[in-house]
Amino acid sequence: MLDDIETDLLLSCDKAMTALSRDLIRIRTGRATASILDDIKLDYYGQMTPLTQIATVKVPEPRMITVQPWEKGVLGQIERAIHQSDLGLTPTNDGTMIRLPIPPLTGERRNDLAKQARKLGEDAKIIIRNARRDANELIKQLQKDSEISEDDARRATTKMQELTDKGVAKVDDAVSKKEKEIAEV
Asked: What are the sequence ranges of the domains in the chain?
């Protein structure tokens, strides 16, 4: 029973880290990455479709992203969708593809992005701490129902705290790496 509780806590930590990693990748760092366009969706034959499913997204140089749709008729829609996104990028349409130059980040924008990364990290820590709280409540319930002894409950609670600390340390590490990446000029 305690193994199941531990497994659930580990799964929650892994899910929080996976979500954090995915969200941190989408924060623009001044370098071109195709993943910053992952959230852009547009109406394609009546369906909201991710941009990456209707066009080829490439990074030919460190500060440029190119988007080449498989149908030229959607160029205008793609351009509008990028404009309307909160990426702060200005697309240029040459009739066959869209070019997205990535401007260098200002100091103020770097600070905003670092704050955004810290907020995402704090959200992940909250998820991990909530999982610890749930695990501890289950342990207390098992002790109350006399399914485990007080010593086993104390050891299990200590183990849950250690696992939580490891999860929080991973989150802090990921956020600090992202902050360093953002700070690079």
From this structure: 2-26+106-183, 34-101
Residue-wise pLDDT tens digits, 48-68: 888 888 888 898 888 888 999
CATH T-level fold of 2-26+106-183 = Topoisomerase I; Chain A, domain 4 (1.10.132)
- Residues 60-107 have pLDDT tens digits of 888 888 999 988 888 888 888 888 887 777 888 888 889 988 888 788
- What pTM was estimated for this model as a whole? 0.73
Query: Per-residue DSSP letters for 150-172?
Result: HHHHHHHHHHHHHHHHHHHHHHH
The span from the CA of 41 to the CA of 52, in Å, is 9
The rounded distance, in Å, linking the Cα atoms of 132 and 145 is 20
